[in-house]
């Protein structure tokens, strides 16, 4: 199974997403204060009308009938007032307070005058912004506010609290582990004498977090033997929903990933993708010790290629595992020409201008380089058989520049 026709890049993303979505875990209830960044597992519906009662938006007077009005009490926020039973009466009312039954108008305090006899006169304001809110003005009891799959952010938490929720039903956070392959790698110090410094072990966990996973173990460098590879993968299967490996995706003399997957009974979901840089990469389903399948993403050893494997296979997989939609690629204007790569999709590292509308390719973009990646906001996507000329509209694949920014 190590020989395979490369899968179209867009199809590979779709296959990874569908695989994750089919394996989304069951819902769990968590307190509102812990829900930021999670995903709704069921629709959020109102538990009451919003607002639940007629509410004053001003400090002033709730009046009945024509002026002048005789004050008969005061209503503060949190109180349940008695109805206004007579024309010509009013109550002082505070912002957020419940409006008494039979109120015919609300008068702002700054628009009112209190006479020597204690009676109040004034005129209600007219215009697009009312001085009070009616029950159900924002939403009705049982109305769906957000569907399942909605990312939870502070605003969603605030709406849920307004509705009366103490907790939310959300999907679990996928758990990830990282295995770094390669005896030639240094984990500290300056590279030299035929050995290179591992840059993927330190950075891949941060990418995984930004795509919504929690990170368990980071192991490596794993010895370049089949036994060591199988043992490392088996150990990670105990706790991880997703295992990412770096290096070993080819078929060289010390590339043991494919034989290890065969020994573990894995099934390939994607085995090589028609994309440059980033070739080869893979995504497999691996039986877990409890019978529940896990996923393994094989990232190339070259750093930029590994990141392209992350955005191609891992990001869509995690979006699916989190129960989220796979967002469409935005369109930007190419700031300069971008060469094609024949039958392969070309992902060209690019930086956005301050408007976010124009993307210009950056330098230092070899498969083994990271300098260009550090100066980029994402990738211009050149589809197979095409090239991009400056000024052309072109799809853009953003990098998650802040934790949780993208699914």
UniProtKB/TrEMBL annotation:
Question: SMART domains from the entry?
Answer: MoCF_biosynth (SM00852)
Reaction catalysed?
adenylyl-molybdopterin + molybdate = Mo-molybdopterin + AMP + H(+)
* A GO term for molecular function: metal ion binding
The cofactors it requires, by name, are:
Mg(2+)
Q: Which residue ranges does the record assign to the MoaB/Mog domain?
A: 177-320
Spell out the GO cellular component terms annotated for this protein, sorted alphabetically and separated by semicolons.
cytosol
Pfam families reported for this sequence: MoCF_biosynth (PF00994), MoeA_C (PF03454), MoeA_N (PF03453)
Q: Which InterPro entries match?
A: MoaB/Mog-like_dom_sf, MoaB/Mog_dom, MoeA-like, MoeA_C_domain_IV, MoeA_C_domain_IV_sf, MoeA_linker/N, MoeA_linker/N_sf
| Annotated stretches, region: Disordered | 115-134, 385-407
- EC numbers, comma separated: 2.10.1.1
GO BP annotations of the record are: Mo-molybdopterin cofactor biosynthetic process
Q: Which CDD domains match?
A: MoeA
Q: In which pathway does it act?
A: Cofactor biosynthesis; molybdopterin biosynthesis
EC class of the enzyme, as a word:
transferase
Assigned keywords, A-Z: Magnesium, Metal-binding, Molybdenum, Molybdenum cofactor biosynthesis, Transferase
Entry's transmembrane regions? none
Could you tell me the superkingdom of the organism this chain comes from? Answer: Bacteria
- Similarity comment: family membership: Belongs to the MoeA family.
Record's function text: Catalyzes the insertion of molybdate into adenylated molybdopterin with the concomitant release of AMP.
Task: Return the protein name.
Answer: Molybdopterin molybdenumtransferase
- The species this protein belongs to is Actinoplanes derwentensis
